[in-house]
Amino acid sequence: MKKDVRMVDLIEQKRDGKAHSRAEIRWLINGYTAGDIPDYQIAAWAMAVFFRGMTPEETVELTVAMAESGEMLDLSAIGRRCVDKHSTGGVGDKTTLLLGPMVAACGASVAKMSGRGLGHTGGTIDKLEGIPGFRVELSQTEFVEQVQRIGLALIAQSGNLTPADKKLYALRDVTATVNSLPLIASSVMSKKIAAGAQGIVLDVKYGAGAFMKTLAGARNLAAVMVNIGNSLQRKTTAVLSDMNQPLGRAVGNNLEVLEVIDALQGEGPEDLRTICLELGAWMLVNAETVADAAEGKERLRQVLADGSAWRKFLAFIEAQGGRLAAVTERKLEIAPLTAAFLAKETGYVQEVDAQKIGRLAMILGAGRETKESLIDYGAGLILTRKPGEWVEQGQPVLQLYTRDAQKLDQGLQLAAAIIRIGQEQPTLSPLIAEVVQ
Ligand code: URA
Questions:
Q1: Does ligand 1 have an atom closer than 6 angstroms to the CB of 188?
Q2: CATH value at residue 354
Q3: I need a surface site. Which of 20, 87, 134, 215 has the fewest CB within 10 A?
Q4: Same domain, 144 and 202
Q5: Structure confidence at residue 2 (pLDDT)
Q6: Considering 328, 361, 394, which residue would you say is the last residue of a domain?
Q7: Ligand 1, closest atom to CA 183?
Q8: Residue at 63 is within a domain
Q9: Residue located nearest, by CA, to atom 6 of ligand 1
């Protein structure tokens, strides 16, 4: 790399649609992380990327530079291939809590870092923190030892992971440059690469409650992320799944954990089971535990049916300090004020917009409005009827849970604007649209 490189030249290069070299990308990311390049120049560069895009090679280099800007987890001490899973985010998405034990019960190793949620409802870590005693912070030694022992550990993302992404994402958030394919893909994948697993499965959601509103958008994002992973010797697969309606029936942290408990015992909603079989099968393929997805699904059905996925979940909760009775006896706190939203007419539930349901759950207290907001683990809602289901006038469609009478009133008003009932059975988009490899 020439010594006399200047940020203004890189901005100009990108503004004119030219590609950066690997050394230029490294220089830019290292300089920004170290505080040598100011925010205003990176903001201008991000806007140039927004309009001009990046080549696949540049996107891979950007991912590596961001991954290597902080701690890189070394999972080699585990001595087995590890598999990680990431969801681009959705309402009622509790799949990680199910997939970890299901996949580990099939003999694969799951070593995963997860985030807290900002927005509708909590992330995986918030859901786990609702279980009394559960520790989301383990030392690296404890983390590795637990994966060796039971095949599964799930912890909060370390503060030292991908500092470049943290800084760049915060800047993109306030400069209208989040919505750029190479910037989203490199941001997500830098965290996966730094987290160390050799196999990766991405659940890329599309629809009203997703980051990507259209299937075409989700497909493009998936293709860029899969290319990054595979270029960096991580066996990567993306599943494109519907997020027009919430996943499962429960939305809100403790309510979702209760739904996970049901699903691990062979009950629970059909859509949740279907997506976990699909994602889990690819996790087993990418962990090289099974030869193909069909064999993976078969193994997963078995561990659900014979109770080994449920026992693995209990071993995992116990290993991380969670009180077992809280899950075996379903003693998770649910917010005390509850009310049902009743159908105003008889017919089929037409649509239940996932984004609006997320907003409703947040109003009830289940999500964070800002990073500083406190989550109410017991707040949320149950969709007693899902889209396509029949309801009689006066029967419940939603059951709301909160701690605040004013929020309950506000929630019931909002519910009236969300639920649509009609005489025609609605056509629903398929839960699993495509698999990208
Ligand atoms: N999620 C991320 O982690 N990064 C993005 O850029 C967008 C969504």
A1: yes
A2: 3.90.1170.30
A3: 215
A4: yes
A5: 56
A6: 328
A7: 6
A8: no
A9: 184
Residues 281, 136 within the same domain:
yes
Query: Is there a single domain that holds both residue 218 and residue 114?
Result: yes
* Residue 187 CA, closest ligand 1 atom number: 4
| Reduced DSSP (H G I as helix, E B as strand, rest coil) percent helix, strand, coil of the chain, to 5 | 45, 15, 35
**Residue 221 Cβ contacting ligand 1 at under 6 Å:** no
Q: What is the mean pLDDT of each run of 10 residues along the chain (437 residues)?
A: 83 98 98 98 98 98 98 92 94 96 98 77 89 95 96 90 95 94 97 96 95 95 98 98 97 97 96 98 98 98 98 98 97 97 97 93 89 89 97 98 97 95 95 97
Contacts 24+ apart (CB under 8 A), 259-265: 259/94, 260/94, 260/97, 260/98, 260/313, 261/313, 261/327, 261/330, 263/98, 264/98, 264/101, 264/102, 264/304, 264/309, 264/310, 264/313, 265/307, 265/310
Domain ranges, residue 226: 76-328
428 domain residue, yes or no: no
Q: Can you give the pTM of this predicted structure?
A: 0.96
Among 178, 181, 220, residue to substitute to test ligand 1 (most atoms within 8 Å of Cβ): 178
Give the count of domains, the chain: 3
